[in-house]
Automatic annotation (TrEMBL):
Its main location: membrane. It holds the Pfam family FIST_C. Residues 32-226 form the FIST domain. GO terms for cellular component: plasma membrane. InterPro entries: FIST_C, FIST_domain_N, UCP018953. The keyword Lipid metabolism does not apply. Keywords: Cell membrane, Membrane, Transmembrane, Transmembrane helix. The lineage of its organism: Bacteria, Pseudomonadati, Planctomycetota, Planctomycetia, Planctomycetales. It is found in: Cell membrane. The keyword Transmembrane helix applies. This is FIST N domain protein. Residues 227-371 form the FIST C-domain domain. It comes from Caulifigura coniformis. It is a multi-pass membrane protein.
Length: 397
């Protein structure tokens, strides 16, 4: 199993695609690829078709996915402006790769979908679903629910295309098909291990509360007292530095397993606080909540995001030697230098913690990844997929 990745910033789109394709072919030792992925910045968007053709001419590949993106990731770099192509390729012996183009239509009776994979269409041992969607025409939450029914427990990883300001401007590719709507993806089955890391960039503050009265996305009471009162109570207990961060944008974490005695990173699904009502003490958040659910307030800033990403990657630092591995990084377009003082933050942290590893990625308008075994679409998150051969250690004698 071999993986390759590179990033090219030549202003000529066709030449850039040839250069990055040639680099990947050399890294794969001149083998063809079973799966390749392209991320292209808006400066090259009008040449997307030429890029696909040039890339495939230089690197024969059975299956191809990709999309346009506001910014791209290549190895340990993040390009946040100007022309750039980031590419990733894998030789996956024994792995079944099935690509799809999912299309959606809103009707009076709800959303209709076509093209999504089902268990009946696939071989056994499904390992992961990769997906890149157009944020205007790919309803992520509906798609997540459908896959939860058809492929329960299978991680969904990827992100929404970014960088366009109007419907129809994003570009997606699936094999030989280029489109501007829906979602393109691949299902990987067989002897491949896929590890997922979802760093939501927050740290919990205060103590957990149980929602004792709520409606839709509004919390009226936490632990039998007005939710706004609990929020102010948490704020008052924070150190001065964290107060300033909390005041700029408090978040809540919704516990994914309410039967735990202790909660830590990775135990919460994060959502932002979007409003409050002085009259009834209610607090509104950006997700549906329910009475009986456990929540905890969180803060998010550059320091928290850096600390969280390192913490989530730390268990993966010990890597068996000789294993071919590759990674895809889906980071929010609100991260990068919009969040961190230094450029290349997320890519550099991944490489310093678990690299060197062939890695490509995009800055997404919504990142896909599992938290506590359930798939979600996130914001301000770094979602990482790590691919490696499946193997078993010999028994101890």
């Amino acid at each position: 199993m071999r993986f390759a990745a590179d990033l090219d910033q030549h202003p000529n789109a066709g030449l850039s695609a040839l250069r990055v394709g040639e680099s990947l072919r050399r890294q794969l030792q001149h083998e063809s690829a079973d799966l390749s992925i392209l991320f292209v910045t808006p400066a090259h968007a009008e040449h997307f078709e030429d890029i696909v053709q040039s890339f495939r001419k230089e690197l024969p590949t059975r299956h191809l996915l990709g999309c346009t993106a506001e910014s791209v990731v290549g190895r340990d770099r993040e390009v946040e402006g100007g022309p750039a192509i980031s590419a990733w390729a894998a030789s996956l012996p024994g792995v079944d790769v099935q690509t799809f183009h999912a299309k959606f239509e809103q009707t009076p009776d709800g959303v209709l979908s076509d093209g999504l994979p089902t268990a009946e269409d696939l071989p056994g041992q499904v390992r992961t679903v990769l997906l890149f969607g157009d944020p205007y025409t790919c309803p992520a939450r509906f798609l997540i629910d459908r896959l939860a029914d058809d492929l329960p427990g299978i991680p969904l990883l990827g992100g929404m295309a970014s960088g366009a300001s109007n419907p129809g401007e994003h570009r997606l590719v699936r094999d030989d098909e280029i489109t501007n709507f829906g979602g393109v993806g691949a299902v990987l089955s067989g002897p491949i291990k896929v590890r997922s890391v979802v760093s939501q960039g927050c740290r919990p503050v205060g103590r957990p509360f149980v929602i004792t009265r709520s409606e839709k996305n509004v919390m009226f009471e936490l632990g039998g007292r007005p939710a706004l009162e609990r929020l102010r109570e948490t704020f008052a207990e924070l150190p001065d530095k964290q107060r300033a961060i909390f005041q700029r944008g408090p978040h809540i974490g919704m516990a994914m397993n309410e039967y735990q005695d202790h909660f830590d990173r990775g135990d919460f699904l994060i959502s932002s606080v979007i409003g409050a009502d002085e009259d009834d003490g209610a607090v509104a958040v950006g997700a549906m909540v329910r009475t009986g659910q456990t929540i905890q307030f969180h803060v998010r800033d550059a320091e928290s995001a850096d600390e969280d990403l390192r913490s989530m990657l730390s268990p993966l630092k010990t890597i068996p030697e000789g294993k071919g591995r590759g990674a895809l990084l889906f980071t929010c377009n609100g991260r990068g230098t919009r969040m961190f003082e230094q450029p290349h933050h997320d890519a550099a942290v991944v490489q310093s913690m678990i690299g060197p590893i062939p890695m490509a990625g995009l800055f997404a308008q919504g990142e896909l990844g599992p938290v506590a075994g359930r798939n979600h679409i996130h914001g301000f998150t770094a979602s990482l997929a790590i691919f490696e051969p499946e193997f078993e250690l010999p028994p101890v004698r």
